[in-house]
Structures are given as structure tokens and as C-alpha cells.
Amino acid sequence: MSIFQSSLRKPLIEGKKSYQEITSQILDPLVNKPIKLWYFAITLSGGAMLFGLLMMGWTIWQGIGTWGENRTVGWAFEISTFVWWIGIGHAGTFISAILLLFRQRWRNSINRSAEAMTLFAVICAALFPFIHLGRPLLTFFIFPYPNTRLLWVNFNSPLVWDVFAIATYFTISLVFWYVGLIPDIATLRDKLRKGLKKTVYNFLSFSWKGSARDWHRHEVTSIMLAAIATPLVLSVHSIVSMDFADSILPGWHTTIFPPYFVAGAIYSGFAMVLTLLIIARKLMNLEDFITVEHVESMNKILIATGSIVALAYITETFMSWYSGIEYEQYMLQNRMTGPYAWAYWIMIICNVGSAQLLWIKKLRRSLLFTFFISIVINIGMWFERFVIIVTSLHRDFLPSSWTMYKPTIVEYGLLIGTLGIFFTAFLLFIRVFPVISISEEKSILKTENALQVAKEIHHG
Amino acid sequence: MDNKDYISVYFDDEDPMLQALRRLKENNLTIIDVLTPFPVHGIDKLLSVKRTRIPVGGFIFGALGGILAFWFMTWVFTVSYPLIIGGKPFFALPSFVPITFEMTVLFAGLSMAAGMFLRSKLKPDIRFKPADERITDNMFVIVIGSNANTTRESIRTVLSGISIIEIR
Fold first, then answer.
1. A40 at the B interface (CB within 8 A)?
2. Cα separations (Å) of B120 from A185, A294, B50, B123?
3. Interface contact flag, B122 A199, Cβ < 8 Å
């Protein structure tokens, strides 16, 4: 097979492996007992999850009066966290769909875990509308179903679009993830000798046998799912942003919201993928598959999306002045210098400052720095949603109803709890399914090995 | 196991496998199937696998989903329960677009995945036994139909010079 590749590109799989080595190196950590650090991590995240479930139960039992919301600030912490999680859920399908269409081979080692992350993040996000309702038993009211009241949901409302967008996004992401997983589950099935585990994986592998015709259909289906998932990724956060942009509140009522939110979503999603992958490669010995090259490529996307976010902040500031509307102008002045200025400046420092540091190659290729900056970015992105929501609401059109919002312990508990659910699910996932797409790694192996040889010749 | 009506040839790399496939085709041998650990490009052409119609199905079901969603919203707001919302018209076309789009994607995606599962006969089966457990690891297998003239020996002659792991 002839290979046309720039000699500038570095290999994505280190160590000139054989097909067998790829299988065993990805699957061995699954078959063997986990390392100590894994137990430590799952204890920590499991504890956070239990605390969150307790607070969720308390909210449902006691009602949403346990939260800090008041008449003026009716949306605050929970919506911020909801939007934050939905945003994080964007990187997975971006990596697996958009980067597949652009034939970016570096996605092969990271797509599986990024897709899993998407699913868990969307589950965390979907919990919020559920507990937000106050009466979770009536959740089915948000779906259009024939009922005795003869009423339908309001299809003109972005909140209803959201239900459809998120439900579709979750379903398609799940299907995409599982379709990709089937050949690898088959590999795992054949690796295991016998026992209950083998039976379970045999069931889950859908009797995959690796026939040429099956591969053909598998490939076509994957690429087609990628093609339809691409506009879907962009639509979901656009619709989430319309929850705000379709209102007439200063600070929300802007047309830049959809692209601004989508860029922000991919920004925070990539940051979360980096956080998780740097953990996963340590826990599962995947240093040869998730290389510094991968981290650097993702950091470049952070620079791009981080700069779009910065541009959005500048546009927002400019437009509020240029609009000539005093409410808009006051809103932004209040954001920058008012009682919530600390939140605004945390957001600016974490989101605008941090990504620009990645222009420095040394920092971009440093795993420790990337890990640190990925957490900083996610803190910043959480504050972005908090700033947008709370500072726009807390001083509304009627100065007599101006107020402050202060989150309660229950609300912090919900944030910590969803983080716990997210990390617990991810830690279990990396123990149960191959965290790297084995068949896709094998399909790029030849090219990568040739690059490795070329590199060695180059360096003498 | 000598009375099987097929012969499996094992390779541990895709290049000799493709070479063998070409040679078997030149000799007009019936190739039943090729089993590989990952999608090897070039097999489809050699086996003359027809391009799957899954995308066509996806298009049809996607269109169906879109039409269904759009028709449903129109029916709800103009026939079933016309409700004035913010003084807007009952038939508010632009605000039907997002849900129409989402349902198009949902139907298209689900139908294509279902198409793949149905056409490849993928179903959960705990009694399933793979032809060889090494196929999902590093073995590439060509399954050839055998008869009185096509025996293991004759295939070995045809494939002489190509690195073969084993013939069963």
C-alpha cells in the first residue's frame, strides 16, 4: 500500500506495534484488575455522586424552595449547570462526527472516550429539567401526547425545541457510539476465555463476525451518521442559546448567541475531554495511543474556539454600547462593575486569558499544563453561564425588585453530584468497554508505523 | 472436518490477503466471504460488493420524519387546538423548523442504524460462536467455496509465493 503523508506529521501511535499488540495493549487493562489510583478516583467520585443524589432527593422531597432562587432571579445555578453540561456534551460528537468527515486521523484514539463523555454529560444535563420541575412525576407533561385536557405543548417555544433537540442528540450519539463499539466488543468477546463476562460481551457484540460486507455497511452507516450528526451538534446548542436569545431581556436578547454558544460548548467540551483523557491514559496505560500529538491537536482547537468566545465577549460589549439602548448599556456596565463583577472577571480570566497561553508551543505540549488549563477553562465556562443568567436577571427593569442571588448548599450539592455521576460513569466505562477504538487504530496502523520509521531515519 | 464445502485461508496481514484475493479471482474461484479485524479498503471492489442502500433508506425515513413532524405541528396549531401565542399566526412556519429538523435527523439516524443491523443480521445471541477467535485480533481469513476440483492442495498451488499462515 503506498502512503502519501507529509513527513512533518508525527506518528499517532508510538512504538511500531503489530495488530496483536494493539489488541492486547488496549484490552489488557480491561481484563486485569484496576490499579490503586482507579479505586481512589472512583471512591472520590462515588462520594460526590452520593452527596448529589442526597441533595437531589432533598430537592424533590422538600421542593425547590431549598434553592436560593427568588422572584427576580428565577433562573440561576441549575440552568447554568444544565447549559454547562450540555456544552460539555458537545465535544464528543464534534470529535466523532465533524472530525470524521474531515478525515482527521488523530480522532481515532480519542473518539470513543469523547463519545462516552458526551452521553454522560447529556445524562447529567437532562437531570436538571427533571428536578427543576419541582414535581418530577409530571415530567411527561413536556412531551406532546394526546391527553384529556386536549392541550398540546407549545411548539413555538425554544424550551420545547430543547426537549426535541436534546432527546435527538442523546439518541443519535448513543446509536453512533454503540455502532462503533460493536466490532471492539467482539474483539473483547474473543479475547475472554469463558465465564459470565464472555456471555455478556457475546450478547452485546450482536454476533459480529467481521465479514467484508458487514464492514462495508458498518463504514457507510458510520459516515452517514457522522454526516447527519454534524448539523445536529451545531443545532443543539443553538437551540439551547435560543432559550435565552428569544426572550427580550437585555443581555440575552442578542443574535450572536447561537454561534457564541456553539463555540463555547466545543471549547468547554474539548477542555473536559482533555481532563478525562489525561486521567484515562494514566489509569489505563494508554501513553502510546494518546500521545502528546493528540493533546496538541486538541489544544489547537481550544485556541480556535477560545478565540471565538473572546470575540463574542468583545462583540457583546461593543453591541451594547452601539445599540444605544440604555438598558443594554446598563446591563453590561453592571456586569463589569456591579456586585457580580467578580464572576465576570473570573470568566474573562479563565476563558480569554487561558486559551491564548496555548499559542506557546511548550505549554501546548505539556500534559501537566494542559490538565491544569482544561480545568481552568471549565471553571470559566461555568461562570460564563452564571454571568449571562444571573447578572442579566438580578437587576431587571424595575429597580424596586432588584436583588441578589446566593446559592444554597443544596445547589452546590447538585453541581458536585452531577460531577460525581459524570466521573463515576466515566471511570466505570473505561473498565467495561475498550476506551480506544481498536479496529480504527488498526486501520491507521500501517501509516503510523511508516511515519515512525521515517522519523527514525530523519533523526538518524 | 474433511467434508466441509468451504476452505479458509489465513493471513496475518492485509497485503498478502489482498494479493491472494486478486489471484483467486483470476483463477475464477468462488469466494464466499472475507473476514477481517478492521475494514480493509479494496476488498469491496475485489468481491464486487454492491454499494449498500442504507443511505437511501436513511433519506426516505428522514424525509418521512421531517414531513410527519411538520404536518403534526401544523395540524396541532391550525386544526386541533388553534391558540394565539403572542399574537403570532397559528401557522408559524419559522418556529416549526427546529423540531422538523430534529425529527428528520432522528428518523434518518435510527433507520440507518436499524438498516445496518437488519441487513448484516446482527442480533444479540449468547450462543454465537465466531468462526475463529483470532479474526477480531489479527487474522484475515478468505473463505473459498470448495468442490472436487478445488481442494486445499490446489489452493496452495494457486497461492504459492504469498505468505499464508494456514489453510483449513
1. no
2. 16, 34, 14, 9
3. no
Q: pLDDT grade, residue B106 (50/70/90)?
A: very high
Domain with CATH 3.30.70 in chain B: 6-37+135-167
Contacts with B106 from chain A: Cβ below 8 Å? 167-168, 171-172
Say if the Cβ atoms of B124 and A19 lie within 8 Å.
no
The residue among B139, B87, B21 whose CA lies nearest residue A20 is B139
Q: What is the pTM of this model?
A: 0.90
Within B5-151, where are the H helices?
14-26, 43-46, 54-75, 93-119
Measured between CB atoms, which of A207, A218, A221 is closest to B123? A207
Cα A427 versus chain centre, distance: 15
In CATH terms, the fold of domain B6-37+135-167 is Alpha-Beta Plaits (3.30.70)
Sheet with strand B140-145: strands edge to edge: B31-35, B140-145, B6-11, B166-167
Q: Which residue of B has its CA nearest to A1?
A: B15
Chain B contact set for A146 (CB, 8 A): none
Question: What burial letters (b/e) apply to A316-329, b meaning 16+ CB within 10 Å?
Answer: beeebeeeeeebbe
Spans of chain A, pLDDT less than 70: 1-9, 455-456, 458-460
Of A214, A224, A232, the CB nearest to B54: A224
Domains and CATH numbers, chain A: 19-458 (1.20.1630.10)
Residues A155, B96: C-beta atoms closer than 8 Å: yes
- Which of chain B's residues have a Cβ under 8 Å away from the Cβ of A152? 76-77, 80-81
pLDDT tens-digit map of B89-98 = 888 888 899 9
Cα end-to-end span (Å), chain B = 9
- Find out whether A264 and A405 touch, Cβ atoms under 8 Å: no
Please state the ipTM of this predicted complex: 0.89
- HEC letters along chain A: CCCCCCCCCCCCCCCCCCHHHHHHHHHHHHHCCCCHHHHHHHHHHHHHHHHHHHHHHHHHHHCHHHCCCCCCCCCCHHHHHHHHHHHHCHHHHHHHHHHHHCCCHHHHHCHHHHHHHHHHHHHHHHHHHHHHCCCHHHHHHHCCCCCCCCCCCCCCCHHHHHHHHHHHHHHHHHHHHHHHHHHHHHHHHHHCCCCHHHHHHHHHCCCCCCEHHHHHHHHHHHHHHHHHHHHHHHHHHHHHHHHHHCCCCCCCCCCCHHHHHHHHHHHHHHHHHHHHHHHHHHHCCCCCCCCHHHHHHHHHHHHHHHHHHHHHHHHHHHHHHHCCCHHHHHHHHHHHHCCCHHHHHHHHHHHHHHHHHCCCHHHHCCHHHHHHHHHHHHHHHHHHHHHHHHHHHHCCCCHHHCCCCCCCHHHHHHHHHHHHHHHHHHHHHHHHCCCCCHHHHHHHHHHHHHHHHHHHHHCC
A235 touches chain B (CB under 8 A): yes
Tell me how crowded residue A294 is: count the other CB atoms within 10 A of its CB.
Answer: 20
Q: What is the pLDDT of residues A381-432, one digit of tens each?
A: 999 999 999 998 888 888 898 989 988 999 999 999 999 999 999 989 988 8
